[in-house]
Write a structure and sequence with these properties.
Layout: E1 4-9, H1 14-24, H2 27-31, E2 35-42, E3 62-66, H3 72-81, E4 86-89, H4 96-101, H5 104-130, E5 137-143, H6 168-187, E6 191-196, E7 198-200, H7 209-219, E8 223-226, E9 232-237, H8 238-251, E10 257-260, E11 265-267, H9 268-282, H10 290-293, E12 294-297, H11 312-318, H12 326-339, H13 341-358
Parallel strand pairs: 1-2, 1-4, 2-3, 4-5, 5-6, 6-10, 7-9, 8-12
Antiparallel strand pairs: 9-11
This protein binds nicotinamide-adenine-dinucleotide and thymidine-5'-diphospho-beta-D-xylose.
Length: 359
């Protein structure tokens, strides 16, 4: 397989940083691919952290560029300068609660930003084809939330489930998915889209359910469970997602979409109980009492009841399966947050400073 020169967007965020580590680490051996360069484009919003990439310092295959994906001219320049043949587009505003409080950045980054990425890639790809190069691929990374909410007995979302986004976040992602689809159909941009369920693992910003709850259990703080805690999500360990993304862009068929899921549906309350049990087992001295910590709070407006993913297509066509179970992935994750308190403390400090700066 020829040498890959990959531009990743959002590579200082949760999934992006795990992806960059995967591409420059296990991907070579697991997928038999040679990756000579990863250009990591990230604006470093509150969700992006250079410290998540600290282990790559000194690795000259990794080039970090602080840049807004809405700056199409700069993206085009980077594509040419580094002779990129694969784009993996992850940069986004990603937190549903924030999209309810303040939707505008979601429209700007997720829709306008994705448009600028697609447009820069379209022009670049045209030049490459004119020069006889046909190996360019663009991966658009999306979410299961674009399909809306399922009833208790509905089958999981498949690649043909109609779109029905319910939050400003999922609507902005759905809009970006439609743009991506249009760029394949109208301009033949060799583009693949993936729709994935809830990820968890190292380097996740502690506003999302798992890292938030782990942190609060460690500190003995109240655990805010929305509504009655019976909303259901499908949970996928982030490295399994990164392998699925890489397989999809390298071996997937342009124009196709692939659902990626953890085959692991759980009620939120059961996730929280499992996290308390895991922290107690790793740190018996803490001995946290679920009854004392769990607090049911006001529900998220428009809170989707249930997500579930039918990921049989990527299994059948690309041979992808999640390698972690909830128990093994969740244990690793709890261990990681216990061992990396300094990572959390550093991003909390940075976040406080940004908020003071905003005030
Ligand atoms: P994240 O919020 O942790 O990271 C997003 C990254 O994008 C940050 O590093 C941020 O600085 C960067 N970014 C934001 N706006 C930018 C801009 N305008 N220009 C350049 N960079 C910008 O998000 P995540 O959880 O890692 O999600 C990554 C992608 O995966 C998103 O597209 C998200 O919709 C999708 N996704 C996430 C999940 C999940 O469970 N986290 C599940 C399915 C799909
Ligand atoms: O404090 C909380 N209490 C609570 O009960 C938080 C932060 C969440 N929840 C619930 C809401 C959801 O039902 O837990 C569930 C998971 O919440 P989030 O971690 O906010 O994730 P979710 O809204 O499901 O979206 C995530 O998965 C799909 C990512 O944030 C998205 O980027 C991705 O597309």
């Amino acid at each position: 397989m020829p040498d890959k020169r990959i531009l990743v967007t959002g590579g200082a965020g949760f999934i992006g940083s795990n992806l960059v580590h995967y591409l420059l680490g296990k991907a070579g051996e697991e997928l038999g691919v040679t990756i000579s360069k990863v250009v990591n484009v990230d604006l470093l919003t509150y969700a992006g952290n250079r410290s998540s990439l600290a282990k790559l310092e000194g690795d000259d295959r990794h080039v970090f560029v602080q840049c807004d994906i809405q700056d199409g001219a700069q993206i085009g320049k980077l594509l040419r300068e580094h002779q990129i043949n694969v784009v993996m587009h992850l940069a986004a505003e990603s937190h549903v609660d924030r999209s309810i409080d303040s939707p505008e950045p979601f429209i700007m980054t997720n829709m306008v930003g994705t448009f600028q990425m697609l447009e820069a890639a379209r022009i670049y790809q045209k030049e490459r084809v004119a020069g006889g190069q046909n190996d360019f691929r663009f991966l658009h990374v999306s979410t299961d939330e674009v399909f809306g909410s399922l009833g208790p007995d509905d089958p999981g979302f498949s690649e043909t489930t109609p779109y029905a986004p319910n939050s400003p976040y999922s609507a902005s992602k759905a809009g970006s998915d439609h743009l991506a689809r249009a760029y394949f159909h109208t301009f033949q941009l060799p583009l693949i889209t993936t729709n994935c369920s809830n990820n968890y693992g190292p380097f996740q910003f502690p506003e999302k359910l798992m890292p938030l709850m782990i942190q609060k259990v460690i500190r003995g703080e109240k655990l805010p469970v929305y509504g009655d805690g019976s909303n259901v999500r499908d949970w996928l360990y982030v490295e399994d997602h990164c392998r699925g993304l890489t397989l999809s862009v390298l071996r997937g068929v342009p124009g196709e979409t692939y659902n990626i899921g953890g085959k692991c549906e759980m009620k939120n309350i059961d996730v929280v109980l499992a996290l308390i049990a895991a922290v107690n087992s790793e740190r018996p001295d803490l001995n946290r009492d679920p009854q004392e910590l769990i607090t049911f709070v006001r529900d998220r407006p428009g809170h989707d009841r249930r997500y579930a993913i039918d990921c049989s297509k990527i299994g059948r066509e690309l041979g992808w399966e999640p390698q972690e179970t909830f128990e093994t992935g969740m244990r690793k994750t709890v261990r990681w947050y216990l061992d990396n308190a300094d990572w959390i403390e550093e991003i909390e400090r940075k976040y406080q400073l940004q908020r003071l700066g905003d005030a």
